Structure formats: structure tokens, C-alpha cells
Amino acid sequence: MTKKQRSVFIGLILGDGYLQKTGKQNARLRLEHSLKQKEYMAWKVILLKNYFQAKIQTLERTNSSWGKTYSYVRIQSMSSSEIGKFQRIFYKDSKKIIPVTINKLLNNSLSLAVWFMDDGYYYHRDKMSYIYIPNYDKESIQFLLKALQDNFNLMPILKAKKKGLVLIFNVVETQKLMKLISKDIIPSMRYKISLDPVSTDQNLI
Predict the structure, then answer these.
(1) Which residues on adjacent β-strands are paired with residue 73?
(2) Most confident range, picked from 50-54, 58-62, 101-105
(3) How far out from the chain centre does Cα 92 lie?
(4) Of 47, 104, 114, 119, whose CB count within 10 A is highest?
């Protein structure tokens, strides 16, 4: 695994990526995105092409609460021992966690960019950014916050919302975040960030 692949991998694990155990040592990566983010998924697959053989599938899913059917894209990687190592680091009893070693793992702005493209949003009204995260245990959250501060000088505030936990970056923290990630946000996902990474005063793309 190259340095760039590793950075992408860390970002997508923190984001929407799911690692499925396939044996004592191996695991596979499963990616799912909305249909409008198919290009973004293709970008991930190209970067990690040595881990994929299958093609991206377009599927449909019905939301039982709303009674609506929507399309999404999905792909699974081959099973490998390298992915298995990440699965053992980021999962405990089949539940995703933040490991104590996250300081050493989350140290590249590309990882931040992938994580933001997966789960982040910039709100033009308040000029702040949000990253939604799973309901991690308290220890995991502290590890994650410390890594963000130590490695990127980012100090978001954690809040609980109806849909789960969210890291909120105020105006100043958003400016710092945008400077770090804007160069790595691919064109089809630039709607997620502010137009001007310095002032964050412009309209969204």
C-alpha cells in the first residue's frame, strides 16, 4: 500500500467505508454512495485499483419510513490481509472505534479531505463546517479530538444531534480546515466546501 493509498484508506474508514471481516486475518472494503456521488466512488476505486476487481454496481433501496425508492452505487474490494490489519485496528466486536494509535494514522491532510468528502458539510449561512461521526465511545472521541489538535491544530466542538454526533468547526476553525483540504477536494465534490478557503465568505460551488 502506497503512502497516498494509506491516506485515502484512513479517510474513508473514518467516513463511509465499511470493513468486513472475512477470516482471522483478512477483510474486505465495502463502499456505498448516493448515485450523484458515483464519480467520487470511481475516484476512490482508481486510487485503490489494486484492491478491486469488481465493477461499481448501481442498485435501488426503499426507505420503509418514507416509502420512497432511491438509487445508490456500491462496490466491494477483494479480501486481503492488509485490509484485515485495518479492520483489527478500527473495529472492536464488529463495531467501529477510534484506536489509541489514531495520532500516528491520521496525520495527512488527504485523509482529512476524504473524510470530509464522505461526511462533512459547509454551511454557508453560518460559515461553519460540520463532520458527522458515529456514536463512538467517549474514549474514541478523545483520541480523535487529540489527533485533530496535535496533527492539524484543529479544535472542533463535539455536539450530540438527533442523527448522532457531530464535530462542529466554528468560523476560524473552518478557515483552517479549508486551507488544509481544499487542494484535495475533487471537482465533483467541491459543492461540499466554500468557494474561498481563506475567507469562507463566498457562495458554494
Answers:
(1) 33, 58
(2) 101-105
(3) 19
(4) 114
